[in-house]
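Input chain follows. Return structure tokens only.
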Amino acid sequence: MLSSPYIALTLHVLAFGFWSSLWPRRAIKSRLEPRVGFRVYRIFYNLGTIALFCISFGYVAQHSAETPMLWNLHGYPWFRPLIYVVNGIGVFFLWAAGHLGWSFWGFKNPPPDRGLQTAGFYKITRHPLYWSVFCLLFAHMLVFGSVLGILYFACMELYNVIGVIVFENRELARHYGDAVTTFHARTSTLPFKAMLQGRSQLGRGELPRGTFVGSIVFTIIVGWIHAPVITQFMYTVPTLATLLPR
């Protein structure tokens, strides 16, 4: 069964989605987190999420060429700059994690209640981290140009959308009530839409200049090392297909 790259990739994405959705659930988190502490629980969750994402991405890198190629744009002079721009936008929105502080990664205990995030990136879009994932995955789908790359992008984005609609928005509404309704009235899911409509406006210093400079520098550095990293993925990253018994 795992000989089909489509089925194997779907299993990778399901494993990633199961892990990412399981540990934040209140029924599990409320029982386990008090026993091990916030930091251990959060780091454990983050490490598993990152590992399963890398394994799923590694599978796409290893097996993309085994499925039909729908396009190959690498020979066009505008293609590399386009990928840099799309990836750069993804890195830009990834900086929104900085608003959540070190506790987001589990390196520090969170404040009693940091409140609903409504400033900075969250004025540009309600879900900056989800747009970061969208841009980074979309850029790699363009690079791979294969049916498997499209399947990976579609499955991960489906999980992203379900995560927002079913889990994140519902949890925020439960915790913050009317503040979420007010926040949604002043913002938009689509980046910059609310700002163009005049419903939201960035204040002075809400997005430091270092955010833009850092995004550009990081994107350029990743661009230089991207090909060797992908090659490394293709030959060294284990996949569920190799870990599970045949």
